[in-house]
Amino acid sequence: DVKVTQSSRYLVKRTGEEVFLECVQDMDHENMFWYRQDPGLGLRLIYFSYDVKMKEKGDIPEGYSVSREKKERFSLILESASTNQTSMYLCASSRAIGTRNGNTEAFFGQGTRLTVV
Amino acid sequence: GQNIDQPTEMTATEGAIVQINCTYQTSGFNGLFWYQQHAGEAPTFLSYNVLDGLEEKGRFSSFLSRSKGYSYLLLKELQMKDSASYLCALQKTGYKLSFGAGTTVTVRA
To answer: How far is the C-alpha of A51 from the C-alpha of A54, rounded, in Å?
Structure first.
């Protein structure tokens, strides 16, 4: 059974703290993504990576950084957490080459609900 | 972004049919996805359209019209377990997915 695993389901951190969110996938996927999900706004892409040590900014990268040292692991870093970063964070992965019709569906982790106080 | 619009909420009766519309404004994209997300759970893949037309998968069907900037997800023979959020997403170059805000469907007995 394919799996994307996020290290924590719930986290509570203080303003100004450094926060690490870890994500591991066991499908040998090239692409990995970090999204945040907020009510009324849907999923918004923070960063994605298409290969080891490669990363690209998504739509809302400010206040975040990422690390991909190994193919299976993609980390999201909040260098100085702020209250407006309270959200649900979702990691996803997908293959680089799609199926016959180009389908490169993304598989999601269970999410980390981060509260910054 | 891609200005992807979906209705916020829909309610339907068990056994009925519900159609969730998704409209978008973008110059080009690889394909359009629909995902299902139950409360507190991860989104899971439902369907993918790359060409115009209807893709049928059991009780769920998805339609795409690129010229009209329009897609819909059709849920037939609704069951209580279909109560969830349904997310429309466009895939542009680089395999990035851009999501709409989602439609929460409530199925009532």
So the answer is: 5
Taking only the tens place, the pLDDT of each residue in A61-107 is 999 999 999 999 999 999 999 999 999 999 999 988 766 666 788 99
Q: How many contacts does A have with B, using Cβ atoms within 8 A?
A: 62
- Tens digits of per-residue pLDDT, A9-35? 999 999 999 999 999 999 999 999 999
Q: With an 8 Å Cβ cutoff, are A94 and B95 in contact?
A: yes
- B99 neighbourhood in chain A, CB within 8 Å: 35, 42-44
Separation of alpha carbons A75 and A94, rounded Å: 16
Say which amino acid occupies B63: F
Residues 6+ apart with CB under 8 A from B16: B78
